[in-house]
Amino acid sequence: MAQFFGSRSKYSLRMAWVSVFGVSAYGLIGLWALYKYFGQLISHISQPGYIVVVLLVFSPIFLLIKNLMAKEDGLAGRFFQGLNGEDAVADELKKLPDAYSVYADVVVKPGQGNIDFVLVGPTGIFTIEVKSHRGIINFNGSELTRHGQLLEKDFLRQAKSEALCLHNFLKEKLGVDIYIKPAIVFSRARITFGLKPLENTYVIQKQWVQKLIASHPFYHFPKDRQQIEELLKP
Questions:
Q1: Pick from 195, 203, 80: which is nearest to 145 by CA?
Q2: Stretch 56-83: mean pLDDT, rounded?
């Protein structure tokens, strides 16, 4: 079993609970508005004109609160879905032999975002970006698509940027070039192009993680591997 360091994405976990709090807060505001609404209706039940004014005032408020709650609920769902996807991929990575080390939620430099997983082992170093989309993922020649539509972000560019960031960090600290292999792992989608890299990035479904790692030849580290791992542990 691979050695595992780190925990779930702190950013995703924090944002998920922020959205849950947002749903609760808007819900309480909605209840307060509802209380005021019925209070006004009851106190002016004999004044039809006033009731119409109350309806005109409160209806947009209720609609706004409903939309805000739906938005926050959707955000919370996406963040928790992403965390579940990371957990599923983590389970696959842990099945690798104990010669491999997995580092979760790696922040190379503050302000540059996190890398979901960095894998270090006999076959080299991989950066792994996890996506939890459903459906069939394809490639249009420049970007990934789902059901023929572009995804919300250029994930290939993101994965390559993460690998380059880690490469530059290690070069700065150790003074040598270490080849980093970027990968995108979909926890729920189906991938149709196998283990062939797309623009030097591997795009696979989670069931292929072990096969991808094992398909690479042994890598000769230009620096002692332990030095690299010590830099990743914080």
A1: 203
A2: 84
Q: Supply angle C-alpha 182, 5, 205, rounded to 5.
A: 40
Contact criterion met (CB below 8 Å) for 13 and 83: yes
Please report where in the chains the tokens 């792992």 appear, as a residue: 185
pLDDT of 168 strictly over 90: yes
Q: How many residues does the chain have?
A: 234
Query: How many CA atoms are closer than 13 Å to the CA of 43, on its beta-carbon side?
Result: 7
> CB of 39 within 8 A of CB of 57?
no
Q: Pinpoint the alpha helices (H) of 44-190.
A: 48-94, 155-174
* Short-list 21, 28, 30, CA closest to 61: 30
Asked if 9 and 103 touch (Cβ cutoff 8 Å), the reply is no
Task: Let me know the angle formed at the C-alpha of 125 by 105 and 233, rounded to the nearest 5 degrees.
Answer: 40
Domain boundaries in the chain?
10-79, 98-232
At 219, the amino acid letter reads: Y
Q: Name the amino acid, one letter, at 78.
A: R
Task: Give the model confidence (pLDDT) of 91-128 as tens digits.
Answer: 999 999 999 999 999 998 877 789 999 999 999 999 99
Would you state the pLDDT for residue 91?
94
Under 8 Å between Cβ of 102 and 119: yes
Report the 10 Å Cβ neighbour count for 189.
20
* H or E, element range at 151: none
Distance CA 9, CA 89 (A): 13
| Residue 109 to residue 165: CA distance in whole angstroms | 8
pLDDT given for residue 43 in this prediction: 73
